[in-house]
Amino acid sequence: MIETTTEGTRHRNGNERSLATIIAEIKEELKQFVHTRVQMVKAELQETKSVAKIAIPLVLIALVLFATAFLLLTMAVVVLVASVFAGNPLAWFYAAIIVGVLWLCIAGICVFFAYNAFRSHSIFPRLTIQVLKADKVMLQTEARSHI
Q: How big is the CA angle at 96 (ends 90 and 97), to the nearest 5 degrees?
C-alpha cells in the first residue's frame, strides 16, 4: 500500500520513493507495454507473410489453369448453344451473346458474395486489436478506481 505524506511517497515497509523514481518506473512499464504490443503485431504479420509466400504462387498457377479451363468450357458451351440455332446465319453470334450474358450474371453473383466476405472480415491483426481494446478497458478501470 502506498501512503502519500508531505515527506513523499512511502510504501508499507517504510521505504520512500521520489516522484522521479515513480515516473521512471511508469515510463519503463509503458516502454515494455508498447514493446510487447509491437512484438505481437510483428509476429502476426510475420505469420501472414510466411503463409502468403506459399499461397501466392499456388493461387497464380490456379488462376492460369482456371482461365484455360474457362476458355475451353466457354467454347464448348457456345458450340452447344450454336447448335440450337443451326441453320441460322447468326447462330454463332446468338450463342456468344447468350453465353456472355450467362457468364456476366455468374460473375456479378461472385462479386456480390466476395464483397460481402471482405466487408465482414478485417484484414488487420485481430488478436492484437482485441488485446489493445482489453488493455484500454483495464486502464480506464484502473484510472477510475484511483480517482
A: 90
